[in-house]
Write a structure and sequence with these properties.
CATH topology of the largest domain: Rossmann fold
Helix content: 25-40%
Largest sheet: 7 strands, parallel
Bound molecules: glyoxylic acid
Strand content: 5-15%
Number of strands: 12
CATH class of the largest domain: Alpha Beta
Shape: globular
CATH superfamily of the largest domain: NAD(P)-binding Rossmann-like Domain
Number of helices: 13
Order of helices and strands: EHEHEHEHEHHEHEHEHEHEHEHEH
Oligomer: single chain
CATH architecture of the largest domain: 3-Layer(aba) Sandwich
């Protein structure tokens, strides 16, 4: 008998086809928004789930779904999983690292350039028919080349951004991370380790790429924004909640920092309405990994985790592998 899998969100049809070769699949190709209760109800008779970063799997869901053995997330971030509760329930969690690293680093740079060089702000001005003449300081922003790039969170994506900055744009790269990189990796990224405070005080552009956890909640709030240069740019491609969005909106409005680029938001897809009224922020709807090849590769990895697990208990990217020994 085939194992039963729930696919919580709409996904590429070829991914559903691949799953259907191995499993009995319930999908959501109309991309209906399921409440937690609805998701739980559908998971009740399933052996595995294909989830995305918005699908919360916690103790309450797990208690109602005793058959569930694995949740394969199509995201590198997994703060939608309560890993401790999953481990306690003997449910394997997997994520989708590596395949999105370069695409996401590209996007971090795109957002940085758009914010620092005021690209979307100036486009809105032009589209609104307000451009009547050239002027010396019209949408004058900050330079990227030669500037100091500060990266908070130096995992694979952070390193990708560091390399782009150092090797492509001649930037001086500084970083802060829970643990320092080894010397060879630091040399590869041309990056120097500094304290969080030194980073905030000296960087011309700050990029956030750290994972979300209760410990990283509001890593950037009013106090941290106050340390930054008034000419600085802040980029968040990590997770909503790492920045205090209300404090950021105030700092942007009062020009305490020059600009920001945000791909993730507290409470997304809703966002703090104040962010919509400040001009010096570039806002995108959580699309940093969104190229077709990369999203396909992420979905494919989630499927391979499900196949590997049910075939011979060999998922590719387990997050709580000790569950496999239970
Ligand atoms: C996207 O945010 C991811 O975690 O993959």
């Amino acid at each position: 008998m085939k194992h039963k899998i729930l696919v919580a969100r709409a996904i590429f049809p070829e991914i559903i086809d691949k799953l259907a070769q191995h499993f009995e699949v319930e999908s959501n190709q109309n991309d209906e928004t399921w409440s937690k209760a609805e998701l739980t109800e559908r998971l009740r008779d399933k052996d595995g789930a294909f989830t995305t970063g918005g699908d919360r799997i916690d103790a309450e869901v797990l208690a109602a779904c005793p058959r569930l053995k694995i949740c394969a997330n199509m995201a590198v971030g997994y703060n939608n999983f309560d890993i401790e509760a999953m481990t306690a329930a003997g449910v394997l969690a997997t994520n989708a690292p590596d395949v999105l690293t370069e695409t996401t680093a590209d996007f971090g740079f795109a957002l940085l350039m758009a914010a620092a060089r005021r690209i979307t702000e100036s486009e809105h001005y032009l589209r609104a028919g307000k451009w009547s003449k050239w002027s010396y300081d019209m949408f004058a922003g900050s330079d990227i080349h030669g500037a100091t790039l500060g990266i908070l969170g130096m995992g694979r994506i952070g390193q990708g951004i560091a390399k782009r900055g150092a090797h492509g744009f001649g930037m001086k790269v500084i970083y802060h991370n829970r643990s320092r990189l080894d010397a060879a990796l630091e040399a590869d990224c041309k990056a120097s380790y500094v304290s969080k405070e030194a980073l905030l005080k000296t960087a011309d552009h700050v990029v956030l790429v750290l994972p979300y956890s209760p410990a990283s909640h509001h890593t950037i709030g009013a106090a941290e924004l106050a340390l930054m240069k008034p000419t600085a740019t802040l980029i968040n491609i990590a997770r909503g909640g790492i920045v205090d969005d209300a404090a950021l909106a105030v700092a942007l409005r009062e020009k305490r920092i020059a600009a920001a680029g945000l791909d993730v938001f507290e409470g997304e897809p809703k966002l703090n309405p104040d962010l919509l009224t400040v001009p010096n922020v570039v806002l995108t709807p959580h699309i940093a990994s969104a190229t077709v090849p990369t999203r396909l590769a992420m979905a494919d990895l989630a499927v391979d985790n499900l196949i590997g697990f049910f075939k011979d208990k060999r998922p590719l990217t387990p997050l709580n592998p000790h569950v496999l020994a239970l």
